[in-house]
Amino acid sequence: MTRHAKNSTAGTVYTYHERQKDTKTSGYGSLKIRMGKDSVKEFDCCCLTLQPCRNPVVTLDGYLFDKEAILEYIVHQKRQITKKQKEFAKQKTKLDQEQAELTRAEHEGKVKSFIAKESSIMSKPLDPFKKDAAKPGSSICNMKEGKDKDLPSFWVPSLTPQSKPTLVKKPDERVRCPMSGKPLKMKDLINVKFTPIKDGDTKTALISKHDRYVCAVTNDVLGNSVPCCVLRTSGNVVTMECYEKIIKKDMLDPLNGAKMTEKDVIPLQRGATGFSGSGLTLEAKKDGPGLQG
Questions:
Q1: What are residue 237's DSSP bridge partners?
Q2: Structural contact between residues 44 and 194, judged by C-beta atoms closer than 8 angstroms
Q3: CA of 162: how far to CAs of 94, 153, 169, 200, in Å?
């Protein structure tokens, strides 16, 4: 499509380019974008700081964190939980007091109503033949006989609706992983040992290198394109191909000889992004309001 065709406004068809241009300008409709390499986190970077880990630890779901960052996160979450629990307890005490006051007021109202009815009982009946006897229902006005006090009035402050403060929900007592949302404990964090690459370059810092680590068994270079896993028995990182072809036959850790089970093999999550999505998702989508004809 030529430039003239894209900018033409005399066409009889609402083209895809015009629809995309109007969507971006107006804000209506869903927007999609393909994320580039700069938006993809490296496999050895922390999921919180997005920087290479100095003391890497991994959760049981395979999310990698820097030990200092995840411990600071756990401490912060525990403080927030304690604060919310105090607010919830304070709110509960206040609600209980209000309920007790309402119950007491209702009881006092019933007692007053009973006393008023008892005092209105007359021992001598009215003479029905007396001319000045009160006739019930003689007036059709809705403001007489005390009805003016029963009717609400919107300009009286005591009768206007009140906005109550938002109630605090009962907080979750467990600290949850910022990535998976599952309960997280400090004892579940497993220390990870990356094997540095041996390329003979001693001048360049390890963080500045593109290829930094290799498989602890086969010496294959690790990266986002290479599925890898953590051996829980030793903490070393190996490729999934190495596990399937070498380790899975005997289920022995080749680095320390310890016996392993399938639970001791933790697949390492790769390619987390700065968007809400994670894993291998390379497309971001934002849903916007739509117009229906």
A1: 230
A2: yes
A3: 17, 14, 21, 74
Task: Give the 3-state secondary structure of residue 228.
Answer: strand
Q: How many CA atoms lie within 13 A of 255 on its CB side?
A: 18
Interval 88-126: pLDDT, tens: 999 999 999 999 999 999 999 888 888 888 777 655 566
Alpha carbon separation from 134 to 118, 120, 160 (Å, rounded): 21, 15, 36
Distance CA 88, CA 167 (A): 9
With a CB cutoff of 8 Å and minimum separation 6, the contacts of 130 are: none
* DSSP secondary structure letters along 122-166: -SS---TT-TT---TT----TTSTTGGGTS--TTSGGGS--PPPP
Alpha helices in the chain (DSSP H): 3-7, 16-26, 67-119, 240-242, 248-250
What is the pTM assigned to this prediction?
0.64
Residue 210: Cβ-neighbour burial (10 angstroms; 0-12, 13-18, 19+): exposed
Cβ neighbours around 63 below 10 Å, total: 23
